[in-house]
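Project standup — Tuesday

K.O.: blocked on the structure for the chain from last sprint. Re-posting the sequence here as requested.
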Amino acid sequence: MLMRGELDRQVKALGIDPAGTLLIHSSMKSIGPVEGGADAVLDAFSAHMRDGLLILPTHTWRQMSESYTVFDVVKEPSCVGLLTNLFRGRPGVIRSWHPTHSVAALGREAAAYTAGEERTRTPCPRDGCWGRLYDRRAVILFLGCSLKCNTFLHGVEEWCGVTNRLAETPQDFTVVTPAGERLTVPQYRHHTEPELDISDHYDKMAPAFEKEGAIRRARLGEASCIVADAAAMADITARYLAANEQLFADAEPITLL
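H.V.: unblocked you, prediction finished:
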């Protein structure tokens, strides 16, 4: 079992700036048994980032559909794991109002970081929470999960104008705010024709990211981790997309540039 003192030491050993911005994609079960369970993991990262900004995705894209269109910011569960659902309900944590790709943030400038998502029209716009990771030179930690979980690369494809990534017509969602106000929020959802599992191919960028120092490998408990520089990943991916717009349409290995 990973004891709390050792957990704190391993979080510190990841080398993440405690005054910076950190987003975590996570698989709690990959860490193995932890003294204090999932709450202890969140406590450790929250303590480490107490002078910065800690963010976890709280996505709801899996359940939102043509027939399920109401996103309650306070009540709607996240579809991306245990840690995300515990984190969104913690004191001081602010959840953004995006109907399918919300995030929850704790710490410095959390309110400003999460503001305005109800005015977006796509899952990962450049002027939204995912684009702000680039501006803040954030670190993205893949805790026990692979680059296939890299929502940020959906954003990079959006910003680069890659075709066949968004629906041609918007879908209206209703966002119920923490104050109970109901807002209509149209969204051009992620969509490809024919249907492709784009994110399943994001890990093909690992050799390029490693070559240029955008990612490094680490461990926490039993979990394999990737510590990634968001801005560097975006810049590298943009270059590869300029050479091949449909880079992620298949699993073919990349040719390093």
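K.O.: great, moving the ticket to review. The longest strand covers residues 223-229. The mean pLDDT is 97.
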